[in-house]
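User: Could you walk me through two proteins back to back? I'd like the raw sequence and the C-alpha cells for each, with a short line separating them so I can tell where one ends and the next begins.

Assistant: Of course. Protein one, sequence then structure:
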Amino acid sequence: MNLLYEEGGDIKIATVQSGSGSGDAESWQATSLSGKKIKLKAKEVWLRFDKPQAQAVMDEATALSKDIDLQLLWDCAPEEEFGLVDVSHEYFGAQATIPQQVSLGIALQGAPVFFRRKGRGRFQRAPLEQLQAGLAALERKQKELEQQSAWQQELVAGAFPEALKSSAQQLLFSPDKNTNAYKALMAACTETGESPAQLMIRCGAIDSPLAYHQGMFLKAHFPNGATHSQSVGVDQAAYTAAIAELPLADVKAFSIDDAGTTEIDDALSVTDLEGGGHRIGIHIAAPGLAIAKDDPLDQVARARMSTVYFPGDKITMLPDSVIEQFSLDEGAPRPALSIYVDIDDEGLVNRDSLQMRAEMVPMAANLRLEEIEHLVSEESLQDEDANYSYRQELAILWKAAKHLHAARQEKRVANGLRAEQLGLIDPNALARDFHFQIQDVNGVQRVEIVPRQRGSILDTIVAEWMIFCNSASGQLLADHGLPGLFRTQKGWGPLRTRMQTTPGPHEGLGLDFYAWCTSPLRRYSDLVNQWQLIALAKHGVTAKMVAPFPPRDAALMGIAADFESSYQTYGEYQDRLEKYWCLRWATQDGESKNVQVRHLKEGMSRLELVPLHLPIPELASHPRMTRAEVVLTDVDLLQLSVAVRVLEIEAKLEAPEPSADEDGSTA
C-alpha cells in the first residue's frame, strides 16, 4: 500500500512496509520515494492506494498539476471545508484517477491565494475579495520579477538601467537589500562574477574606482554630504562685534606655507627690543573669538573634528566663509591669539617673558615655500645682499630655532631617546613628504608626485616655533589649572601617544607640556584649546570661572576620544587615496612599470619615488634599506593591489633609522 502525505509543505508518497493499530490509531512504517524510513499516523495520511506504483503516480501527478486551472478549481470547490477526494470528483469527475487526485493535492497545497489550509488534506476556498486582492498581488509580483530580470540582463550587457540611474549611489553604498533593484544587481554580479562596484563601473553608473573609494568614505562619515550649509556662518555684524575691542598689534606678521594652503592658521613676527634682543610673536588665527561653545558653527566643527586632507581636494572643518574671515591672509589686520616671547642677541629664549593676548595682527605677507625655500640657506641668511623678503627676520628666527631644537634634544636624551639631527637628512634616505598634483590632460586625469625632503631651514623655523607655541600654550593651561586637549607621549605601546584632558609630558618632542593650538581653522582640538586660552587671556587667574570647559568636564573627555577616533580615520582615508594615486602613477604610462624599492622590515618595502608600501617576501631576509629593482603589474584600483616581480636585488644603502616619534611638523 502507498500513502500520500505532506512534509515541509511538499506532497510526498511513501510505500508501507508494516502497519499496526486500527482506525484513528492506525500507523505504518514506510519508505519514502527518496528511500528515507518514516513513521506515519492515520491522521497524517491524505490518501491511500495500492496501484499504480508510487513513483509512476508522483511523476504523472506532477505533470498534471501544472495544467490544473486554479480558477476553475476554485469555482468547483464548495463553500465549506472540503477534502482532496471530494474536490477531485468535482474537478475530474467521479472516475478521477489516483494520479489526478494527487495532482490536485499538489495544486491545492501550492495555491494559498485560492485555498486556505484547514488541516492535513483539508482546504477551504478563499473569499472572493481576498482572492481578487491576492491575484492582484501576484500580478504585481510577476511584473516586478519580469522587471528585475530585464534590469539584470541590461546590467550583464553593460548598460545601466535608466530607471536606476538616480539611485545609483544609494544602490552601491547604502542599498535596501529587499528592493528589486538590489536583487537585480546581485543576480547580475553572480552571473558575471564581478563585484557590485566593478559591474557599476563597467556600466558607467560609477565614474571610476576613485569615485567608489570616495563614496564609501562619504557614506560612512558624511552621509548628508560634505558641503557646508550656506546658512551656517559668522555674519558680518557678529564678526565686527567680536573684534571691536581688540587692540592693534605693533608688528608686521608673515606666514610660511606651501602654495596649496588656504587655511592659514599661523604667522610669525620679529620686533626689535630697546637695549638689544628681539620679541618673537607667534600669531594664531582666532575663530574662537566668534564661535561659541555649542552654537551652530561649533556643532558643525564638532561633528567633523578636523579638515580631511587627501590628494587633489579636501573637506574643510569650517565653512569657506568662516575660513575667509579668520585666515591670516596678507593685506589687512586679522584677529589672532598671539604668544610673545623675548630672545637675546644669541637667540636664547627668555621664558619668563612669555605673554599672550587677543589682538588684531597686521598681516604683511604670506610667504610660499615654493618661491623662497631654495633661496634660504645658512650663507644667504648672513648675506645682506641676498634678494628675498624677510631675510633678517628669518635669520633671527633660525638662530633661536636652533636653540629651541637643542633644548628639546637634551630632554629626548634624558628620556632615553636618541637626539634628532637638525637640518636636511641623509640624501640617501627615503623622502617622507610628497606633493600630489592631479591634472586633467585631454579628459584624462594624470598625477605627478613630487617628493620633498624635510629638514630645510624654513621647515625647522616653522616647526620649532609652532612646537614652542603648543608647548607654551600647554604650560599656560597647566599653570592656571585649566583643562584642555593635551597631546602626550610617554612610555611604549599602542597608547604611547594620545590625547588627554590633563597635562602630561611629550617625551618624543622633549617637552613637559604640549597642547595643540596652532591650527584652530582645521583641527577641533585646537579650537577647544583656543577657547580656554582666550578665557585665560581675558580673565587671567579667574579664567577657571568663565572658561567653556571647567576641570574634570565629562564633555571634554568625550571630545578627546572623538577627536582621536576621527583624526585616525581621516588619516587612514588620506593614506588610502594616496595609495590609489600611487597606483595610478604606476599605470598611467603603460600596463607595467619598472621601479626601485627599498626594503624596510619583514618583507615590507617602499618605492623610492612615491610613498607606496608593498609586501615583497623575497626581501624579507635582507637588511633594512636593501635596494631592489622590481616590475609592477596587474594593478587593481578597486582592491588597491598590485603584483610585484623582483628583477634585481642590489647592495644595502646605509641610512639613519627613522624617528619613532610622531610627525615632527606638529604645527
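----
Protein two, same layout:
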Amino acid sequence: MLSACTSKFLSHPIDEQAPLLIDHLLSVGKKSEELFSESLFSNKSLAFYSGLLHDVGKINPIYQKIFHEPEKNNRKNIEKHELTNYVKEHSRFSAWTADKLLQKIGLDYDTIDKILVLIYGHHTNIRKYLGRITKSEQFTASHKAIDSNLQKLKSELSGKPEFSKLNWDSCIEKFARPMNFDVSLNSKNSPDDYLEMSYAFSCLLQADRGSFHEWLVPNFDLELNTDHLSNSSKNNRLGKIRTSFQTQIMKNFDYSEPISIIHAPTGIGKTKVFLDIINRYANDKNMQRVFYFSPLLALTEDFERQLSNKGHPIITQNDQKDILVYNHLHSESLQEKNEENNTVNSNSWIFENESFNKKFVITTTQRLLMTLYSNKANDKMKLASFRNSVLIIDEVQTIPKSILSNLKEIFKKMNQYMGTKFILVSATIPHEIGDITSVSLSKDVLYDYILKTKKQISFISSLNLSNMPIKKTLIMANTRKKALDCYSKTTQAHDGEKVYYLSTGIRKKDRSEIIKKLSNADKLSNADKLSNADNYVLVSTQVVEAGVDISFSHIYREEAPLDNIIQVMGRLNREGENGDAELVVYRTDGESTPYSQLEFKTTQEKIKKIKDSVDLYRILEEYYSEIYEKNLSNQDGTKKLEQAIKQLDFDKVWKFVKELALKEDGRDTVFIPDNNHESWQKVQNGLLSNDTSKKNLKEFGDMTASLPIPLHKLYEKMGENPFDEDLMEKNILLPKKEHLEKVYDTNTGLDKWLAE
C-alpha cells in the first residue's frame, strides 16, 4: 500500500519533471496514438491503450516508496530494504491490470491480446505467447498490495474520460486472481499484422522514452553541395562515363516509386548520385529523415568522410549536428565525431540517437535488419522513425538471399502503411529482387564503363608466390589462418620486399595506418609511379574487399562466390590506367568457409571459363538464376521466416534472422595499447573506471583487435594467463604490460597464435 494515503501515485521520482503517474499515462497514450496516426495502419487502439496503461503497475508499493523519497541519496537504501518485501517489477502487473480494464469496452479479443503483449514487453521484448507466471513470495506481496491500491487509483483517475471508459468493476473484482495469461497472438493478414504490431510497439517505446526529453519530429531540409564530386575523377575518360551515369540516373529516377534499384558497378560514382537524389527530397515537406545503410563500417566511414571533407565540405559544419553516426563504436552526431578530443558522456542515454530521431542517419545494414526483425525493445524503438523517410541500402546483395525475398515484401508494406521509400544499390542484382524496377540507364553507359575498366581474369590451380609480380599487389584469402600462412610464405619468397598483413587480428589503429600508407602510395604522380620504391604486397582477409580507397595493380583472390570476386575486383586498377592489371583467382583446399557451399561450388564451375570482367558481368544473371533455382535451403529458409511472421512469432523471427545474418564469431576482443607505459596505464585506468563500455569503445576502440582462438587455447600456448585480472572480472581483455609483446606481434597482430 502507499506509504502516505494522501499522496498521489508517481511514475518516476518526485524531483523529476511531471512525476505524477496520471500525467505520464495520459502523455504517453496520446503521444503513442499521435505517432501511430502518422501511418495508415488502422488499429489506433493498439497504440493508445498500450501507452495509456503501460505503467499502471507502478502502483506497486516499492516504486511509490522510492519515488516519494525527496532525498536522491536515500533511494538506493529504500530500494534495498523494500526488495525484501516486494518485487521491483511493473510491466507484468500493468498487463494484468490492462487485461481486466479492457474487457467489454468495445475491443475485440485479438486487439486486447496484442495490447497486453505490447505492455508486457515494453521494457524487454515483444513476443507471441504470454502464459503462466512464476511467482516468488515478493511477487505475491506486490500483487496483493497493487490489488489494495486499485480503488485509490480509480478514484485518482476519475473525471478523466480516457480512463472512465475502462472496466474498473471487472478489474477490482478479478485482479486478485492468480496471474496467468492465456495469450497467443494470431495474424489474419501477413505481413501486415506483423508490421502493424512492430510499429505500434515502436510508437509506444518512443512515446514512453521520449516523454523524459524535449524532442520534435524533424523535417529533412539539409542542403548538400556535391559540385566538387563532379570533377573528382583522376581520368577524363572515366570521368565522362561517370558524369553520363550520374546524369542519366538523375534524369530517370522516379520519386514516386516505392522501391528503386540503382545498378551501379563499383567505382562508377554512386555516392554523388545518392547525395543528389537526397537533395531533391529536401523539397518534399513530408519527408522527415534520410537513412544510409552499408554492410561494412569501412563504407559508412568513407561516406562520412566525404560528407565532412574539410577541403570540399558537402555539408556545413553546423548542419553536421543533424547527422547521426550510429554503429557499435559511435552513437553521436557527425559534428561530435569530428571534434577533436570529444568523448562520449559515459552516463548518457540520448533519446534522439537511440530512436533515430535525426534528419540524416548513417548506420549499418545489420542495424536495419535488427530494427525490422529483432523483438528487443531497444531495437524496435527505432522502427517508427522509418515513416515518411528515404532508406538508401548500399550493396544490397550482401543481405542473405533467404532474407532478401521477405525483406522486399516488408519494404512494400512499409511504403504502403508508413510512406517509406527505398533505394537499393548494387553492382549486381540478385534474382530475389530482380522484379523491382531499376532506374533506367543506357546499356551503352554500363557497357562502356565495364569495357573501359576491363580487367583480365584468370584461374590457377595453385598460387606460385615466387613468380608473383611485386607492384601494388593484393593477395586475399578466405580465412585468417590461410592469410597468415600466405603472409609467412610471401615474406620468405620475397625477402627484402615490403609485405604487409591485414585482418581483424590487427588492431584498428594499425590497420588504418597501413591502409593510409598504401592509399598515399596510390596517389603518387605518374613520374613517381615509375619508381619501384613504393611497390608492395598486401596479404589480407576480406577486410579490404570494399570501402578502401586503394587501387591495386594485381590481385590474387582465393576462389569465392562471384559476388565477392566482383567486390574485390573494384579494388583493381580503379581508374583503368594499367593495361597489365589482372585478377587471378586461385584454388587452395576447396573449403567453402565462410561462404555457402552452393554459391562456392557454382562459382568453381564457371570461373575457369571467364577471361575478363566483361565475361564475368555477362554471366551474372545466369549465375543468380541458377543459385535461386538450386538453393532449396534458401527457399526453405524464406518459407520458415514468412511462416514465423505470419504466426506473429517474434522470438522465432529474430532467432532465424540473427543466426543467418548477424552471426557472431564468438571471438574475443582484446585491447592493445601502444607499447609504452603511459599508453598502457591510460588504457588500464580508463577501462577500470565506471564508465560505460560505449565510452571505452569510443576512446580506445582503435586499439582493439580480434583474438582468433579461444582463450583457453591461448593460455595453453603461453602456459599462463597474460591478461589483467581486475579487468577480466569485467569481461575486458587487456594484456599485462609485461606480456604485451608476447601477445601481439607488430606484423601479424593476434593472428600470430594461428601459426602451427
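The longest strand covers residues 289-294.

Let me know if you want the two compared in more detail.
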